[in-house]
Specification:
- The chain contains eleven helices and two strands.
- With 326 residues, the protein is an all-alpha fold.
- It has two domains: 151 residues, Ferritin, core subunit, four-helix bundle (Ferritin, Up-down Bundle), CATH 1.20.1260.10; 160 residues, no CATH class.
- Strands 1-2 form a two-stranded parallel ribbon.
Length: 326
């Protein structure tokens, strides 16, 4: 049983003024804790943004103190235990451990959404109260939360000057490359190139599109599972800074599977030569796509990347065709 609430989850409209005030206090405590967790998470790689969140946590602490003072004057020192999860339909905060791997931009967006939700809460809460002082306090807090976007901008201007912003943006881009692009590119290369030999060897050995498709499907899925687990298990990301092993494994596994399926799916076409010509065309597109990604994200000169990838793919394709035709 929750003090101040008869049983179960109550609607917001059923809360008393004391319970609304207690809910506001717990909200501010939670938000301050989340901002400090964000600051701790960002301190090593994004120190300027960490300072912004530390200041925002201090603002939430100030709000909490004002609310506690109002509760003490009106209802005494015993504050009912009531939190967001005790109110039906009330907005909820994501557990910090679920969002600890968010990018810096997503964390900033989360913070803006938190302030927007807080403003809505205080406006609704003010309408539900009849006590003049509490209504004024809640209305003032709603106005403060509405102005927090300007506060956030001023804090960012103070701590995130042009150089800091550019440095953090470069760090965020580098993290994106290490966590998503690099393992995904490795997977795409592995899936596109390594499956060429078994798929085309089967194709030229059997001239049976259905059998070729089954071999390609098995090779693609098997390679994807293997590549995904290998990437995830090879590095936990703590020392290398490459990010979540789960994300890297997912990226590598999915792209490996897609790389192989690209030239396996045409063999769903029952006509052998039609399927083979389409598959060969898709292989060409896949290899040039890999070269473009290397040039775009890894800063590899395009023609050098194209030569390496196309040459490697051609050799593997030739091996498969010779083996299958022999």
């Amino acid at each position: 049983m929750i003090p101040g609430i008869s049983s179960g989850r109550h609607r917001f409209s059923e809360l008393s003024e004391q319970e609304i005030l207690a809910l506001a206090i717990s909200n501010e405590e939670d938000d301050a804790r989340i901002y400090r967790q964000y600051a701790q998470q960002l301190r090593n790689n994004f120190p300027a943004s960490a300072k912004v969140f530390e200041k925002m946590a201090e603002e939430e602490d100030n709000h909490r103190r004002h609310l506690i003072e109002a509760h003490s004057r009106r209802f005494g020192d015993v504050i009912p235990l009531i939190r967001r999860e005790h109110v039906s339909g009330f907005y909820a905060r994501k557990p910090v451990w679920l969002v600890k791997n968010l990018s810096i931009e997503k964390i900033r967006n989360e913070a803006h959404e938190m302030e927007r939700q807080a403003e809505q809460f205080y406006r609704k809460a003010a309408k539900r109260t009849t006590d003049t002082d509490i209504r004024k306090l809640l209305g003032d807090l709603a106005a403060i939360e509405a102005g927090h976007s300007l506060l956030t901008e001023s804090l960012e201007e103070e701590h995130l000057d042009t150089d800091n912003r550019e440095n953090e943006d470069r760090a965020a881009h580098r993290q994106f490359i290490l966590t998503w692009v690099q393992p995904g590119l490795a997977g795409l290369m592995d899936g596109s190139v390594s499956t060429l030999a078994p798929i085309f060897a089967t194709a030229f050995a059997t001239h049976n599109p259905h059998t070729t498709f089954l071999v390609g499907l098995a090779a693609s899925i098997g390679a994807g599972i293997s590549m995904g687990f290998t990437e995830a298990a090879s590095d936990d990301g703590e020392l290398s800074g490459r990010g979540s092993p789960g994300k890297r494994g997912f990226s590598a596994g999915i792209m490996t599977t897609l790389g192989g399926l690209g030239h396996a799916l045409p063999y769903l076409i029952p006509h052998f030569w039609t399927a083979t010509i389409i598959a060969f065309t898709l292989v060409f597109i896949e290899l040039w796509t890999i070269a473009w990604i290397q040039n775009r994200y890894m800063e590899t000169p395009f023609w050098r990347a194209a030569f390496q990838v196309v040459l490697g793919g051609a050799l593997v394709f030739a091996a498969g065709a010779i083996i299958g035709g022999g």
